Automatic annotation (TrEMBL):
One of its GO terms (biological process) is methylation. The gene is HEMK1. GO terms for cellular component: mitochondrion. This is peptide chain release factor N(5)-glutamine methyltransferase. It comes from Vicugna pacos. The lineage of its organism: Eukaryota, Metazoa, Chordata, Craniata, Vertebrata. It catalyses: L-glutaminyl-[peptide chain release factor] + S-adenosyl-L-methionine = N(5)-methyl-L-glutaminyl-[peptide chain release factor] + S-adenosyl-L-homocysteine + H(+). CDD domains: AdoMet_MTases (cd02440).
Length: 306
């Protein structure tokens, strides 16, 4: 159903009824406000309504969605980016602009995104950081295809490498070495506690890929792999930015304390717009021989930002 809807929906949108979030009713020409709907338009609205009554997410029904001002194509079962993730992007942008000097000779950071999905995080960072470069990885074929399509739609394909990769596999980091070391690792990984999966809304359970959501018993399965991978790929004092469950800051802090060999420090915990501890800034605390130093500040004791 996902492929047939994607094709039909995109064709219908091109016929003249634009329902994109970036085109609200206020943008309609005044003469259309009172113009009766055609039989085709009525049929199309009924078709859209029937999909929604089946609990299909609006993002999949429309076939596209706005994220950080970018219009991204959306296709099931690729994970739909949430508003909280826009906050993660904003935080990364704040940190980059506050740096005391440029990271690379080219003037922008080299960023690794783990679990790129539709490409929302990577492409929004590229659009706001004109001299940055991104390596985006995902183990899902549908995600890789969609991220590539979105990169071309936005004409950002020349600054991003989208690579099929499962970070849980042994020595997966070796496949990324030719493009590293990186300044930043950013991820909105699967972090839902396995026992909480059945409580998710039907829109999520029936349409989105559970692999992009289920983080294992304590939601830490992919998070721990990212942290174990990071020291091999980060530059000196490089940073990791993660979106997590509100229960994770304490769990991640304890996990890092149990792995002093990684030389990673939890620097900051930041709250989302609902006041929940949602985002983590983790920093490499020990230089790695042979990797050029960058300009991230010296790690400070963990703090919670509002």
């Amino acid at each position: 159903m996902s492929q047939s809807w994607s094709t039909t929906g995109q064709q219908s949108l091109r016929k003249g009824v634009s329902l994109r979030p970036g085109n609200p009713f206020q943008s309609l020409r005044p003469e259309l406000w009172t113009q009766p709907l055609t039989p085709w338009q009525l049929q199309y609205i009924q078709e859209l309504s029937s999909y929604r009554l089946q609990r299909m997410p609006v993002q999949y029904i429309l076939g596209e969605w706005d994220f950080q001002g970018l219009s991204l194509k959306m296709v099931p079962p690729v994970f739909i980016p949430r508003p909280e993730t826009e906050e993660l992007v904003e935080w990364v942008l704040e940190e980059v602009t506050q740096r005391s000097r440029v990271v690379r000779a080219q003037g922008g950071p080299l960023i690794l995104e783990v679990g790129c999905g539709s490409g929302a995080i990577s492409l929004s960072l590229l659009s706001k950081l004109p001299q940055s470069q991104v390596i985006a990885v995902d183990k899902g074929e549908a995600a890789i295809c969609l991220a590539n399509e979105n990169a071309h739609r936005l004409q950002l394909q020349d600054r991003i490498r989208i690579i099929p990769l499962d970070v849980t596999l042994e020595d997966s980091w070796a496949h990324l070495l030719p493009w590293g070391p990186v300044d930043l690792i950013v991820s909105n990984p699967p972090y839902v506690f396995h026992r909480d999966m059945e409580q998710l809304a039907p829109e999520i359970l029936s349409y989105e890929d559970p692999v992009a959501l289920d983080g294992g018993e304590e939601g830490m399965d992919i998070i721990s792999h990212i942290l174990a991978l990071a020291p091999r790929l980060l530059k000196d004092s490089g940073s990791i930015f993660l979106e997590v469950d509100p229960r994770h800051p304490e769990l991640v802090g304890s996990w890092l304390q149990s792995r002093p060999d990684l030389f990673l420090d939890l620097v900051t915990v930041r709250r989302d717009f609902c006041g929940r501890p949602r985002f983590l800034h983790i920093q490499r605390s020990r230089p790695q021989r042979g990797c050029p130093a960058d300009a991230w500040p010296v790690p400070q004791p963990p703090r919670v930002a509002g």
